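Notes, Module 5: Reading structure tokens.

Key idea: the token line is not a picture. It is a compressed description, and you learn to read it the same way you learned to read a sequence, by spotting repeated patterns. We will look at two proteins. The first is printed below with its tokens.
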Amino acid sequence: MPVLRATFATLLLTLSLATGSAFAGDALPVAPAQLDAAYWIAKLPDAERVILDAGAIAARNAALPKLEPSWHDLAALPASLDRDELRAMIEQRSAPPTRTLYAEDGHALTPDEIAALRDALALDAIPDRTGVNFALVVHRASLRTFPTMQHVFSKPGDVDIDRFQESALFPGTPVAVLHAGRDGRWRFVVAPNYAAWIAADALAEGTRDQVLGYATRQPQLVITGDDVRTAFDPSRPALSQLPLDMGVHLPLLADWPRDEAVSGQAAYAAWVVQLPKRDANGRLQLVPALIPRGSDVRVGDLALSRANLLRQAFKLLGERYGWGHDYDGRDCSGFLSDVFATFGVRMPRNTGDQARSSVFAHQSFDDTASRADRMRAVAALQVGDLVYIPGHVLMVVGFEHGEPWVIHDVQGVSVREGGTLRRIPLNGVSVTPLLPLQFDAGHDYLARMTSIVHPLAPLPTGAH
């Protein structure tokens, strides 16, 4: 059983004094060694053993569109949608704000401004039936609540979380294109894991077969690093030094002739991948591009061992927090989705869906769960397990003196210091102990824990 909280605090303070703390102050001390994946891997028996093989991952992924309402099977979409169905889909995402939101200059959005956002949806322009078109994303682009890049916030001066930012899509992501905004510069799209507005110039439209075939083409080069870019290409600016996020999968042109250059650069010292490109008319072209051989990439998905999972997560340590993949970063659920994508594991986009999804083995907690039940569940956590509280998720990296430690992408955490609550602004991917974290003045994370998910377990028995 975990040691008492007071004992744990004493141990943390001792660790801080003995090794030096990566934190300012003693409220949440973290030793420098604990910021290295190797530290936690060394604690694991059989760390390199594959926990979930490719077949088990494929089976769970195949069940995802059948069992998870937030996941969209693009191949199952009909050729067209009727007006009411499409309108309901857009209005579900682009509902009028129910609380006051503030612009960057600090003023509260006025009723006229909100009406203008609603008008930009062009709902009156939806025909009786709308054909479903398809496209590939050509560069990292935001998914928005409304067809605008206007930034809005919950309170004046708090500019970290843009409440119109939903998520982001990456090069090569297939989408169904359903509707155009009033000004023609935005499209309402359905991606496998989300539906929202994206800038039209981030899309290259092609046929259904072109777009859906692209994502399944083999072999694939998997982006496993935190900062991978295509090679500089002076003749094709759109493909030059294109950022590729962790977890992106691209078709690999493995049979490309070694002596055939790409944009004047020899191909033998690089990976030749196929990238989507948007022509002058917005149509899809599939073209070769180079990724330097020295990049952090690999052919095919990583083997899902606990050691590899820790290595991948720690590659993003210290990255700035970005709500909805904003600021070229990630939020808590996006961080884990991108890490697990390097193993071929597909996950719902948001924490609530991840925590409840029936494709993952999980244990749920409600208000009837006792403190003792919660402590027993925490004591049984394993490396790679995911702990959910309302609006947040953390991944277990190991134990110190019987207490769990986690990695998570977080704006900030609160801890109790004497009789007061202290807020520590982390604003990035961070390693912390779990149990000292406070949800609010009256509850710690343990008391508000809603779910423990076991993503290294196969599809639960009976789920199909």
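Here is the second protein, with the sequence above and the tokens below, as before.
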Amino acid sequence: MAEPDTSAPLPATTANTHVHELEVAEVIRETADAVSLVFEVPEPLVPRFRYRPGQFLTLRVPSDRTGSVARCYSLSSSPHLDDDLIITVKRTAGGYASNWLCDNAFPGTRLTTLSPSGVFTPKSLDADLLMIAAGSGITPVMSIIKSALIAGTGTSYLLYANRDASSVIFGAELADMMAEYPDRLVVDHWLESAMGLPTAEALTERLWPYTGFDAFLCGPTLFMNIARSAMVTAGMAERHIHTEIYRSLTGDPFAEIVVARDDAQTPATATVELDGRRLELSWPRQTPLLDVLLANGYDAPYSCREGACSACACTVRAGEIRMLRNDTLVDADLAIGLTLACQSIPLTEHVDIAFDQ
């Protein structure tokens, strides 16, 4: 494919090639409150739905009130084991989308989704991994563990907290995996019904032998705060702690991409490193970088298009940008040049950016 002519104007509107429909092939009842939805991927879409362990899908869920809502659900399947895509959804009190999916999804249901996205994924499956999950936070963790056991060489320790034994998602599968890989996987269940709520002190005692591992943490906010405190107290460096946080999206990430022409300002130029390619692009001054990339047909990662996640995070290597909104990047991220492509507009004539996650 030839590189685009940076002097040529972008079209005013172009279809969002990241938006697709997938059909539910099977619904698996995991617990009384959780189901797994198995999606078959048609052959022409296979390249679009390649994913890394720990990533998620953004689904459009029908709504009688608003037409639809967008929600992110982690893939519990492994790209190294499963042919189909599998997400696992747990019913939450007052959670419209999760309740709709648990009650209404059945084989044959077609749902609109974006391509897989997310940065909650290990850089190497050969690394030793400390996995900490509570409730449905096991979903991306399960994808990572299965992948590490099948395609990696390291060991994994999983601390998994739940209300009681009946609410443990993947309980039988985890037991089978421990039996198959006794020297590489330890699963430590914390049941609130028998042990009370987990405390930082109690978790520190369990986690200190694994402070040299890479840690992946997913669950309710309060639990993650306690677990993070325990890991730091045990001696783990913050840079080794990776967390997955989901927020309810308020915008429409499925909307068509609109790149407005602005004849009053000369576009900036961008050099973008993406998937091993260096792209040279014309960048209209008031258009976020993500929209420019998608409008030109490039497969840039994203899930929300509203600055509420970090799926489109990239590094500014030269030049300056301004972020219109930032709800996820912290000072340490900004200090190393990270920005959100969906919120970044250029301030200098040229900007050099890399998607290197």
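Summary for the second protein:
- The longest strand covers residues 20-31.
- Residues 138-151 form the longest helix (14 residues).
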